Amino acid sequence: MEVTRDVDKLANHATTPLKASLVGMALCILSMISIQVGAALSGPVMEKLGSFGATWLRLLFATLFLVPFVRPRIRDYDVRHWQSAGALGCAMAIMTLCFFASIQYISLSLAVAIDFLGPLTVAALYGRGVWRILCPLIAAAGVLCLSWDGRSWTGNTAGAFLALGAAVGWAGYIILMKRVGRRFAGLEGLALSLLFATLVATPLGVIEALQHVTPMLALQVALLAILVPLMPYSLEYLALKRMQTFSFGLLMSLEPAVGAAIGLLVLGQGLAQVQMLGIAMVVGASAIGSRLQVGK
To answer: What is the DSSP string of the chain?
Structure first.
């Protein structure tokens, strides 16, 4: 299929590990920008549809956009293909549903801090040498600084456990996305995984969404679905085809820094000194850790 061949050609275009990793990092940064811009614009829709309803509709629209475009060759898949795509779809659903539900109970800053335990754990597990521990620890401290709202972290146990569920989903997403990327051609694995994610989220989101959705809201969610999750998942899928799991997991800790920059540019939200320190720590740990792994 032409689309599949083109995507595979793009994913394998880099001729050296260094070039491949640098392109992968660029794709990750573009993904983070898309996520944070989408999150900054999502407030009104989330208030009207609820967290589960808005999340399910986003997954549904992303699936409707991607599956007809990619046209997965379903008859060619064996049991391992279906298992990999199904597991990734479950991780996607858990990651998104739990995170957006958690911020109904705890502050966004605390939810982000807990959520980033996922990629930082992956970085620690898949790294090599002493830096596999030091870089995630430095990045984790930076995320905590970025997540501080200037007053306190308040919330309840339910919200913390939901955020922890999102962290587990995110860790699984990173590991399984790498596996699906190797097993499927082009974006076929991503399209199939999105379909599974939508099915998993349906029991929780369909009733909430249908109770409040209007044609205008549906159009807004469809547009937001391009920013989150369609573009980020596609970019990260391509990035993991050319990056080590450690580098990807550590690089994801840059997302709070990207979010802070988007908040400043889009929403006019200023940064405290401790948050600027957090950005420096996260950027430094990600740069050092990723560069060391590329060099090996």
So the answer is: -HHHHHHHHHHT---SHHHHHHHHHHHHHHHHHHHHHHHHT-HHHHHHH-HHHHHHHHHHHHHHHHHHHH---GGG--HHHHHHHHHHHHHHHHHHHHHHHHTTTS-HHHHHHHHTHHHHHHHHHH--STHHHHHHHHHHHHHHHHH--SS-----HHHHHHHHHHHHHHHHHHHHHHHHHHHSSTTHHHHHHHHHHHHHHHHHHHHHHHHH--HHHHHHHHHHHIIIIIHHHHHHHHHHTTS-HHHHHHHGGGHHHHHHHHHHHHS-----HHHHHHHHHHHHHHHHHHHHHHT-
Identify the band that residue 54 occupies on the pLDDT scale cut at 50, 70 and 90: very high
- Does a structural domain hold residue 4? no
Instruction: Kindly tell me if the per-residue pLDDT of 185 is higher than 50.
Output: yes
Which residue range forms the structural domain that includes residue 71? 16-294
Domain contains 11: no
Least confident among 49-53, 58-62, 139-143: 139-143
Q: Between residues 153 and 218, which one has the greater pLDDT?
A: 218
Mean pLDDT of the chain: 83
In a domain, 3, yes or no: no
- For the chain, what is the domain count? 1
Q: Please tell me whether the overall predicted TM-score, pTM, comes out greater than 0.90 for this model.
A: no
Has residue 245 been placed in a domain?
yes
